[in-house]
Amino acid sequence: MTTPGILRGAFRETYRNIPLVTTLYGMNLLFASVIAMAFRAFVANPGNAGALGPLLKDFDMTLLYDFLRTRGEAISALWQVVLFMTLLSVALNAVSSGGVLATLESGAPYSLRAFLGGCGTFAFRFLRLLVLTGIVTGLAAIALVACAMPVLWWLSRNHTSEIPVIEGIAAAALALVLVLFLAVMASDYARVLTVRADSRSMARAFGTSFVFLAKNAWGAIALQVIVALLTVCLFALYLGLTGLLEMNSGPKVVLVFIVQQVFVWCRSFLRVMLFSCELAFTCSRVSGSGPTEIVST
Amino acid sequence: MRTFAVVPLAALMTVPLSFSPARPGQPPALSDRVVQYAIDVTLETREKTLSGSERLTWRNTSSEPVQELQFHMYLNAFKNTESTFMRESRTRRSVAVREGGWGWIDLHSLRLENGTELKERCTFICPDDGNAKDRTVMRVPLPAPVPPGGSVALTLKFRAQLPRIIARTGYSGDFFMVGQWFPKVGVYEPAGTRYATKGEWNCHQFHASTEFYADFGVYDVNLTVPGGFIVGATGERRGERRNSDTTVTYTYHAADVHDFAWTASPLYVEVTDTWRQVSIHALLQPQHAGQARRFLGSAREALGYLDAWVGPYPYADLTIVDPAWGAEEAAGMEYPQLFTVETFSLMPLGIRFPELVTIHEFVHQYFQGMVATNEFEEAWMDEGFTQYYETRIMDSLYGAKTSLADFFGFHFGDRELTRIEYTGMNDPGIAPITTPGWKFPAGSYGPLTYGKTAMVLSTLEGLIGRAAMDTVMKTYFRLWKFRHPCGKDFVAVVNAVVPVICGNRFGPDMNWYFDQVLYGAGICDFEVTSIAVNRVTPAGGMLEADTAQSHAGEGKAGGSPEMFESVVTVGRRGDVRLPVVVAVMFDDGREVREEWDGRGRTAEFRYGGKVVRAGVDPGRKIPLDVNLINNVRTVPPPVGPVWKYAVKVLFWIQNMFLFAATIA
Ligand SMILES: [Zn+2]
């Protein structure tokens, strides 16, 4: 199957599973709301909020700084909420990807029961995969930084200009992004391969995913890049729209809120579509009835 | 508590400003020209050393004979780990002299004109901290005292090892920033100068956080460097001679300055510009040549601004130095007619750091260069005054809310950041800004001398008005340029000017203000403590006509048709007492402004009618107030800003989660 064909198919498949997209969006909204409401309570401390009036019209560094400084303790409490909810959300995302892939793989219309079933079936495997991906990516990043630091230090000491250092930092950052990109792709395909073959060993699935990506690098990268570009276009559209709407009155705040939620929903749509792409791409590259490379343990 | 006499403005205006006459054919002397230096120095770029010969003529301006001279030997601050600078740096600054990067100065001879060698008489002294191992101040007893009005001429031969760039001076590769490099005589303060009650030397050791103090004079300096090196220096270049050994000697002349600094590097790109009679030379690193307009343009703007609002820049030259990569310790430093800046490649136009540092260091040409305060003892008078004008110039050029950064909707002004530097301290009341530079508690020197002083002056401006402030500063500059004023001299100018312009509004003098903010360490914090709105039950029964009037207490906004009574309580949480304006807004859109003298801890304002908002210092004229959040109260609290930011936070958290989902 060609890349445009896969994309078209994935779009149709995701469109057929709108409730799945909405489920993911709903989970995201729910978790983020906990933080936003904690933040709201923090800002609306009685007596303080009056001074924040000018902040509605425009950014005001003086007021913002004084506000943050006078609420130092509350901020550290808020940070703990943010950290906890982010970790929880990452874990839940790993678990929910099982439900998404199972729903897409089955070809049956979306049902909450099937979605939750998929989540449950793969929950522990995908959490293990999450930890594995984190460890592998972390080690790769540490190795990269360990190599880059002496080079940057040497560049800094042996040049009369900062330009070689800036170039070195840019190169190291690019390499880091590539490593992350590769790890993300490998993790995604490991999940796809696991769902297709009901694989048990995540290390093996991760390894197989790397082998698969090595063999089908260009096709896989093309799909990732296209979906990433779609996200960027979406973001540009969002910025353009909200650029027209300054949040300086109640109705405009509501309007921007609606635009933001549509944007987040669309991003959830693209997330499901990417899984669908990856599933279709794996099907088209791995021979016929089943993935023979993957051995269940 | 300190108090100062009010000197009538007219008396100040008539302070005699007679300096010694210039030689025939020379422009008139602007300063007292206590010192005269003629220096020949050669830079060895491979060994990073200077070999110099210095002829110094020092004049005794006091009315008593002077028995000894004292010299700054400041390169010795970098001689070893036992110098006062290095000892203080261990706790105050993260300075590490890498092995091989030490710097020092050795005196080979010191002779009187008659040939008498005084070198053996020289001893190092440690007037500030008793550190006998410090070698930064040298005492030279003279065989015969210098009589009042008389002079002594000395010839000194020295050799200096430059340190790897540290605390504004030294080398980095082929880049040289040469400051505090020659034996420089201290300041003999005759009785009546600043705080001196008897004639005495003021010659401080080199400290980790302080700057310098020296007398005005004339410098004629021959700088010999290898061919291919581009040179910049204090003063005006008068000549250039190619020597047989491929070196080049540049001759510089600087008059009415109190220091001489220079720089050399083969890599500089020189870009020049002019402002009226002033030639501006920018010596830039090649990779920053594209930013030349940012430096030169800012210098021109600052020249214009200070010329209009403080006084004229009398010199013909100004040199801007952009230190090499790796020499950041040399950046952002002022010397007479020369200062160093800092920037990076790819610096966005919306981040106005090159402009900021250029303007700051240029303002020092006035408050340090010409108004030569003692930077050791009263750092607030150069750094704080400079910071005040830096924020004024930056904010006037680029907008009060956008002058420092204006980048993708995120923006803030220079004064805003300067205020935060002070108010963001863990303890803004830790020490008075008049603390001697080397005695500030750790971490408080910068925020207090720069940040708090700028806010003290901004608040003074808020109280007396911009026009009166400009008169104060113009008067201060006119009276004290090319001299050594101290804090009480500035206060005396304020005390003379303010009553003339503002009448008795602030009392007979402004000592009450300076006692609190200069000599006291208290903080300033006003608040609206509460707004109480009560429904009033109308009086019943058969009423006499005159009792149907509003029952407004001291309020001026009585006669409201609604039956409400409001009480606005304002409070003073800090120690600093200032008159403040309280703005009270009613539900029908009326606004009442009250003046509160701020002396008590609280004050109440009562009104008939429904108050919806009250604010102290609505015009933000008191930037010394460390917390502006408690300055305003509304009834009921507004929900708009709260929801706006909650919605923003929700959106960014949602996106963060989605991003995390993508990579997890
Ligand atoms: Zn400064």
What characteristics describe this protein?
heterodimer, A: 10 helices, 84% helix, 0% strand, B: 664 residues, alpha+beta, Neutral Protease, domain 2, Immunoglobulin-like, 3 domains, five-stranded mixed sheet, 24% helix, disordered N terminus
Helix-strand layout with pairing:
The complex is a heterodimer of chains A (297) and B (664).
Chain A: H1 3-16, H2 18-43, H3 53-57, H4 61-70, H5 72-106, H6 112-157, H7 163-197, H8 202-215, H9 217-244, H10 250-285
Helix pairs in contact in A: 1-10, 2-5, 2-10, 5-6, 5-7, 5-10, 6-7, 7-8, 7-10, 9-10
Chain B: H1 9-13, E1 35-44, E2 49-59, E3 66-72, H2 84-92, E4 104-112, E5 123-124, E6 137-146, E7 151-161, E8 170-172, E9 175-178, E10 184-185, E11 187-189, E12 200-202, E13 217-226, E14 230-233, E15 236-242, E16 247-257, E17 262-265, E18 269-275, E19 278-284, H3 292-309, E20 317-321, E21 334-335, E22 338-340, H4 353-363, H5 365-370, H6 380-398, E23 405-407, E24 410-412, H7 414-423, H8 445-464, H9 466-480, H10 487-502, H11 511-517, E25 526-535, E26 564-572, E27 580-586, E28 591-596, E29 602-608, E30 611-616, E31 632-634, H12 640-663
Parallel strand pairs in B: 1-13, 19-20, 20-22
Antiparallel strand pairs in B: 1-2, 2-7, 3-6, 3-10, 4-7, 5-6, 8-9, 9-17, 11-12, 13-16, 14-17, 15-16, 18-19, 21-22, 23-24, 25-26, 26-29, 27-28, 27-30, 30-31
Helix pairs in contact in B: 3-4, 4-6, 6-8, 7-8, 8-9, 9-10
The structure holds zinc ion.
Oligomer: heterodimer
Overall tally of domains of chain B: 3
Largest beta-sheet details of chain A? none
Q: Which ligands are bound? A: zinc ion
Q: Name the chain pair whose interface involves the most residues.
A: A-B, 69 and 62 residues
| Mean pLDDT figure of chain B | 90
- Provide the CATH top-level class of the largest domain in chain B: Mainly Beta
Which structural class matches the secondary elements of chain B?
A: alpha+beta
Distance between the termini of chain A: 31 Å
